[in-house]
Description:
Layout: H1 5-21, H2 28-42, H3 59-70, H4 74-87, H5 94-109, H6 116-130
Amino acid sequence: MVVNYQRIYEHAGYLFYAIAAADGAIKDAELSVIKDLINKEWLPLEDSTDEFGTDEAHYILMTFDILMDRGTSADEAFEVFKDYFDAHKNAFTEPVRQKILMTATAVARAFAGQNKAESKYLKELKRMVGGGSKQ
């Protein structure tokens, strides 16, 4: 199976945005954690690039920035991720699932610990990525 990493990364951007925006405001600490983890964890994961030679993991932050500019609600962003994940579960390898969970948890804890809204998303995420088929 050919994995479209660009689409996975775009949708991961939706998820991380939802976690960061869950309390109604995206904090600098949350954005810093996302940028740091993209560089340390996501860029080395695999070597896909787009037609311009940009590592496709950068699509996480590009999508996040677009959603922030649009003022997308956390619930809407989470639903977009959830719908994509449900439709493409087999494309999410175990390493990608683990990085998604680790990154989402780190974003939730980045500013003043994890709040109730973030906990709701993380609980649903753990159910999603922990279940289903694994590769």
